[in-house]
């Protein structure tokens, strides 16, 4: 009896016109929520708002990874030059400078050391003699067979012989250092360049007189090639987002490249940063001026909306938010690769999920929006 009374009260309440219209709206809202909740199961692909990007081509040209200026450390006359422009450096010396005068100095120093060695042997012999003589005179002095003057004279001669020996040893050490210096200077009369590098400039000929520090030639290392670039902050971020070794187009080949260094100093005139790439695993001709290009995606104004989420109604483009069911009108700016480029909207942030266009979920959302508008009117 009690349940029947409750049923009659609810029935009479819903039969009243204002209450019936309100209940219909609540039921429609409940139906929409159920559709939106089950859309994740019904739809295989998630439609999501993405930040807008555009593809740009970055181009640069190869150059040597390292360059070195060849110069002489010693003055003299050039006897021979063994490489010309374009030659690859081997183990053979690049330039030979006349060593005649340094050879004379080495010979004189060697002879001086030999004479000093003879003097040292004499000094050691004198020291040995006066040492024995000092001991003999000392014994005779104890027996009153030698005078005090004889003893003092022998001791003084012994001390002088020792000082002469020490002086000769120090002089020999100085001559040995001098000889080592001369030998090192003679080595500098043969000028070498790094093996495997290529001669890119040569400014010296045979029989010329050269001075220390004067540039004689230039060699470059083309075993690895670098690509200097000047990029914006957005372009740098896009390059850094690529793999550690990313593909590039070099002439007709597609080798890899990686970032060698980034100069943190900002160029206020160009508003860009300078970076350098290193070409990897390239077997073609290695020289400067080879064109290198690759593409990156950089952020641009607007947002990317999946075409599958956009409905066209009376020349208006709309999407429906999955979480709230809200319908948002779009300002289309273009399209590319299955996405519309649209103007930014606070409700359409990157990562926002959308309902597929034409789906039951979207139709329910649109119908609910129309009913709400009709109710407001």
Structure characterization notes:
With 377 residues, the chain is α+β, with helices and mostly antiparallel strands. It folds into 3 domains: 18-53 and 301-376, conserved putative lor/sdh protein from methanococcus maripaludis s2 fold (Beta Barrel), CATH 2.40.420; 57-66 and 220-297, Elongation Factor Tu (Ef-tu), domain 3 (Beta Barrel), CATH 2.40.30; 99-188. It contains 6 helices and 20 strands. Strands 3, 7, 9, 10, 12 and 13 form a 6-stranded antiparallel sheet that branches. The chain starts with a helix and ends with a helix. The relative contact order is 0.17.
Largest sheet: 6 strands, antiparallel
CATH fold assignment of the largest domain: conserved putative lor/sdh protein from methanococcus maripaludis s2 fold
Count of helical segments?
6
Mean pLDDT: 83
CATH architecture type of the largest domain? Beta Barrel
Share of β-strand residues: 25-35%
Would you tell me the structural class of the helices and strands?
Answer: alpha+beta
Question: What proportion of the residues is helical, as a percent range?
Answer: 25-40%
Number of domains: 3
Q: Cα distance, first to last residue?
A: 43 Å
Structure summary, number of beta strands: 20
Written as H for each helix and E for each strand, in order along the chain, the element string is: HHEEEEEHHEEEEHEEEEEEEEEEEH
């Amino acid at each position: 009896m009690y349940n029947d009374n409750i049923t009659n009260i609810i029935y009479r309440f819903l039969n009243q016109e204002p209450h019936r219209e309100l209940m219909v709206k609540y039921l429609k809202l409940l139906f929409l929520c159920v559709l939106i909740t089950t859309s994740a199961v019904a739809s295989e692909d998630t439609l999501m708002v993405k930040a807008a990007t555009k593809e740009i081509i970055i181009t640069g040209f190869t150059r040597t990874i390292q360059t070195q200026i060849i110069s002489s450390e010693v003055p003299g006359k050039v006897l021979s030059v063994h490489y010309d422009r374009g030659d690859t450096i081997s183990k053979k010396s690049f330039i030979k400078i006349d060593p005649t005068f340094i050879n004379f100095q080495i010979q004189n120093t060697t002879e001086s050391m030999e004479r000093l060695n003879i003097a040292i042997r004499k000094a050691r012999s004198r020291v040995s003699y006066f040492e024995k003589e000092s001991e003999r005179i000392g014994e005779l002095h104890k027996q009153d067979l030698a005078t005090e003057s004889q003893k003092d004279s022998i001791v003084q001669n012994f001390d002088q012989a020792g000082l002469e020996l020490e002086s000769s040893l120090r002089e020999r050490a100085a001559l040995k250092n001098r000889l080592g210096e001369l030998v090192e200077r003679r080595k500098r009369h043969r000028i070498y360049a790094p093996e495997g590098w290529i001669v890119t400039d040569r400014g010296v000929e045979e029989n010329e007189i050269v001075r220390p520090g004067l540039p004689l030639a230039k060699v470059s290392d083309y075993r690895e090639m670098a690509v200097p670039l000047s990029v914006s902050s957005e372009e740098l971020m896009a390059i850094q987002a690529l793999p550690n070794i990313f593909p590039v187009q070099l002439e007709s080949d597609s080798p890899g490249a990686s970032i060698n260094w980034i100069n943190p100093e900002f160029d206020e005139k160009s508003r860009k940063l300078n970076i350098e790439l290193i070409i990897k695993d390239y077997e073609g001709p290695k020289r400067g001026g080879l064109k290198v290009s690759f593409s990156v995606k950089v952020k641009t104004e607007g947002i990317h909306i999946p075409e599958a989420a956009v409905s066209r109604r009376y020349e208006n483009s709309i999407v429906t938010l999955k979480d709230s069911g809200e319908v948002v009108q779009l300002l289309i700016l273009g399209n590319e690769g299955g996405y519309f480029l649209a103007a930014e909207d606070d409700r359409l942030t990157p990562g926002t999920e959308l309902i597929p266009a034409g789906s039951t979920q979207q139709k329910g959302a649109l119908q609910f929006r129309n009913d709400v508008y009709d109710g407001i009117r």
